[in-house]
Amino acid sequence: MTTGSDVRAAFTDPAENLAFDEALLRVAPESPVLWLWRNPVCVVVGRGQRIAREVRIEECARDGVPVLRRASGGGTVFHDPGNLNVTLVLPGPTDRPLETLGQVMSAAVDQLGLVPRIGDRGLFVGDAKLCGFAVFRTKGVLLAHSTLLVETSASLVGRYLTSAPPDPRPLDSHRSPVASLAEHGLRPGFPAVEAAVRAAASHLLGTLVPRPPTAAELARQRSLLHTRYHYPSWHADGAQRAA
């Protein structure tokens, strides 16, 4: 089995979290990397999505909820401290990264006491989505990440995300009913949830050694903040600033 990394890092700015998420991929690690993190309240759209089709813009503006863009594809998600973001970076040829992520999240949720199933772009308990999945691939490395609803209420998610549009397009989010662990009657607390995810990832990927961010990861994060995540046009329409 391989020895990978369990990165322990926390940033208070959601743009810094998104930049670090991508930085973990861009440094091209030679072994698996796991990072567990939480964001303040915000909405995060996929790389090629149109905000007007995905987000209740007036409600976000009224409540001061920022709308940001990530580098991976997939659908729009609501972030707040009540959900856990799980990032897996997998080096080498990995044909089914979302399957690997699904296995990790499914094992963790099973360990916590629910019976999950892997469905369309996410993990479900009954008919309600508990986790959404997305992936971002470079030449030799890929990143798969998930948002696990731990305490966030479904009504809060629906307040800021649009319903499915009547004229669906390929990049639109696939809307599903959602429910958190708490709404399924499970309140283990974040330490227990994180321990379950770490145990599941270690079982599947090999030993994951806790470590702080490397100098290379932090340098790449700063570069990405300059060219993308602190650049308003990136979040508005995906346009980058010249390096």
TrEMBL record:
PROSITE patterns: BPL_LPL_CATALYTIC. Residues 28-209 form the BPL/LPL catalytic domain. It comes from the Bacteria. The keyword Iron-sulfur does not apply. Keywords: Ligase. The keyword Ligase applies. Pfam families: LplA-B_cat. Pathway: Protein modification; protein lipoylation via exogenous pathway; protein N(6)-(lipoyl)lysine from lipoate: step 2/2. GO terms for molecular function: ligase activity. This is Lipoate--protein ligase family protein.
